[in-house]
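pasting for ref
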Amino acid sequence: MHPREQTIFALSSGRPPSAIAILRVSGPEAGTALVALAGRMPAPRAATRALLRDATLQPIDDAVVLWFPGPASATGEDVAEFHVHGGRAVLAALFASLSAFADLRAAEPGEFTRRAFENGKLDLTEAEGLDDLIHADTERQRRQALRQLNGLLGDRARNWRNQIIEASALIEAGIDFSDEGDVPAELIAPAVAKIRTLLGEIKEVLAARGRSEKLRDGLVVAIAGPPNVGKSTLINALARREVAIVSPHAGTTRDVIEVQLDLDGYPVTVIDTAGIRESEDPVEQEGVRRARARAAEADLVLWISDARHEEISHAGTAPVWRVRNKIDLDAAGAVPPQGQRDTDFRISASRGDGVGELIAALIGFVQDYFGFGDDGLIGRERQRQLLQQTAGSLQRSIAAIGEGEELAAEDLRMAAYSLGRLLGRVDVEDILDVIFREFCIGK
């Protein structure tokens, strides 16, 4: 039997041990396995208590079972669920019993969601939203993922694709009736109007301020600067725990240290880099090289200095904020006024002076960087690229009208093709392999 036709099973809850574990079975033999283990077929979609037994009729567990006959199930196939006590021995016995059935096998990563996609239960943007929702760490990530899962982009893309097909039909009809006088003009004019409207809508989505697709990975802030100016002390203050070694000796930080922060619901990765200076130590030289590389790739650089180090040494393209540290060591302990620019800050990372103002400025930067409230349509770079391809094809189709309807029709077919790839409905086998293998096993 082909692997796609086999029945699959997997743990769909967290790692054992746990109070309750959920094991899901999907495929044509799901009902057979359920009856064999539970002794009877429960009513559809009704939680039913059952004593599970193995092939030798030895008890496995006192469980709750559910039956979802296809196609009215999450995957579109027959689905059985076993809610058992989450001990490792219980799960091992249940796995062994299921593996003994013919044409039942353990699921591969993302295989449940892939079957749901292939059976028309969700499109590719919704599948991506489900994956993002599972991996969401912050409130903003959760909101965006839920919008994708609910079909916010998929519904728009389906509507756009249908309108492109309608416009293409008008133009191709004009080609077919080109020998009938004014008929082609009557068909092509509304088609062009439709294409212009569609192009405007897609361009509006692409031009929306912000980088919503990067919300999945988060913004990267690099803390850079000379040695022993308080970089590690600052990252500890931002993380509110000791994640980096703080020492008065220069060169303590030899590698890049990363901390994940949640700033107003936005994911931010703060990296503490090795002090940038000339050194004869090969280990420290490698640390400096890595520090420069990570700072160059960051979205924002906080250049930390003190009274002895004022010069900025950074060659990247990201904006750089100057942060003067150790103001508690200034004469008489006085706190000097803030810098003249909005991106100049004076702090005492060890005492906390000015750190709150710096965090508030970081939150403002992050909000402006992502630049949307709750209406961001694009969740992944793949989606943005395909929408850009669609817009390009529509633009070319408008320009080609004067040169020949055949060229315009071909560009419209390419636009519909790009949206089909966005939804996962045409020529996407390689894309599916990449996307679904990133899922956890039970999904």
